[in-house]
Amino acid sequence: MSRYFTEKYASLTPYTPGEQPKDMQYVKLNTNESPFPPSPGVEKAVMEQCGRLQLYSDPESTALRTKLAEIYGVKPSQVIAVNGSDEVLNFAFMAFADEIAFPDITYGFYPVFAQLNGIPYEQIPLKADFSIDPDDYVNLNKTIVIANPNAPTGLCLSLGQIEKIVRSNPDHVVIIDEAYVDFGGESAVQLVSKYDNLLVTMTFSKSRSMAGARLGFGIGSEDLIADLNTIRYSTNPYNVNRMTEFAGCAALVENDYYMANCRVIMENREWTTGQLQALGFDVLPSMANFVFAKTERIDGGKLYVELKKRGILVRHFTKERIKDYNRITIGTMEQMQALIGAIKDILEEQTL
Ligand SMILES: *Cc1c(COP(=O)(O)O)cnc(C)c1O
Fold first, then answer.
1. Most CB atoms closer than 10 Å: which of 84, 248, 300, 333?
2. What atom of ligand 1 comes closest to residue 150's alpha carbon?
3. Distance, CA of 24 to CA of 4 (rounded, Å)
4. What is Dmax (Cα atoms) for the chain?
5. Is the CB of 163 under 6 A from ligand 1?
6. Which atom of ligand 1 is found nearest the CA of 206?
7. pLDDT tens digit string along 106-145?
8. 203 C-alpha vs ligand 1 centroid, how far in Å?
9. 40 CA to centre of ligand 1 in angstroms
10. 221-254: pLDDT as tens digits
11. How far apart are CA 26 and CA 35, in angstroms?
12. CB of 166 closer than 8 Å to CB of 189
């Protein structure tokens, strides 16, 4: 830290992204990216906009928001487009939270956004089976953020449980982070017309194969979206760049391609879960594009290291409550077969 770093950030612990090593080609199952490339229209749209980069992007992302509004059955004024959904999460913390609550095991960025913005936060423990007890959030009287499905567990709350939380906290915004909803979850977007304190966030990074383009969005009441725009226009009005906005529009035109890919991922997830269980793993029932698994046959950290030696990257967290587990992104069938083959080898070596 330089001696110029401002006092108010001196104790900030930044988010640690999953590793992106460059020493060799890995089977990358560590950051929940899609194994499939974007659809053909996306490449064409980006190429076209390359020749127009002298112009600023549309600060309102009107074309993109109009398409999103159509798909999600809301008005364009109920949609904000952002530079990855991390951005709308940060804006929402800034705009709505004096105090915020979220589970003890969840997306690692929530405590960082809270610290960054000087917001006191409460981490509510998951139940022993790693599920969220919705009653912990009923009448809480604080801003709430819940990833649904949750990360890194993959577990879901039902729409009814979400509604109970939203309805019982009318004086606070409830943020539902739906980064993984396209892999079998139920979206709370259908509740936004009923509750003006509900903000749903989504991303093109996982189900729409565009993690590198940085595109996310939020859906809520017109008033919540207007507040988020006040923050956005006070930060970076051109937050979504020209190439990304057009890429996003093109992806939505070809939405069926992405939804078909999600179905493949869900099938591969069921296959991988069965294979891991047959090898003696406990696998949480995931509704996301990853599984969270552990086995008594090998230490979680050791499995991560052994897989990496064999060219396969998964995500291991050192946090006490989950250090036995690895989070494994679901890729193509070929990638999952490579994973299962490597795990079999590692477990055999263990018993020699
Ligand atoms: C990946 C992820 C995000 C954000 O992704 P962006 O790439 O910033 O859109 C948000 N929440 C959760 C739970 C995630 O896993």
1. 248
2. 13
3. 38
4. 64
5. no
6. 1
7. 999 999 999 999 999 999 999 999 999 999 999 999 999 9
8. 7
9. 24
10. 999 999 999 999 999 999 999 999 999 999 999 9
11. 12
12. no
Looking at domain 40-253, its CATH class is: alpha beta
Please enumerate in sequence order all residues whose Cβ is within 8 A of that of 167, keeping only pairs 6 or more positions apart, or say none: 195
Tell me, using a 6 A CB cutoff, whether residue 203 lines ligand 1.
Answer: yes
How many of the other CB atoms lie within 10 Å of CB of 142? Answer: 20
Q: Determine if the pTM surpasses 0.85.
A: yes
Instruction: Identify whether the C-beta of residue 272 lies closer than 8 Å to the C-beta of residue 330.
Output: yes
Write out pLDDT tens, residues 271-296: 999 999 999 999 999 999 999 999 99
* Distance from C-alpha of 315 to C-alpha of 16, rounded to nearest angstrom: 12
Name residue, tokens 């960054």: 116
Question: Domain residue spans in the chain?
Answer: 18-36+256-351, 40-253
Residue 348, burial from CB neighbour count under 10 angstroms (0-12, 13-18, 19+): exposed
Expressed in angstroms and rounded, the spacing between residue 3 Cα and the centre of ligand 1 is 33
Q: 85 CA distance to ligand 1 centroid (A)?
A: 6
User: How far apart, in whole angstroms, are the C-alpha atoms of residue 250 and residue 241?
Assistant: 14
Q: Check if the beta carbon of residue 72 is closer than 8 Å to that of residue 330.
A: no
- Ligand 1 pocket test, candidate residues 80, 107, 201, 315, most atoms within 8 A of CB: 107
- Decide: 239 in ligand 1 pocket, CB within 6 A: no
Determine whether the shortest distance from the Cβ of 207 to ligand 1 is under 6 A. no
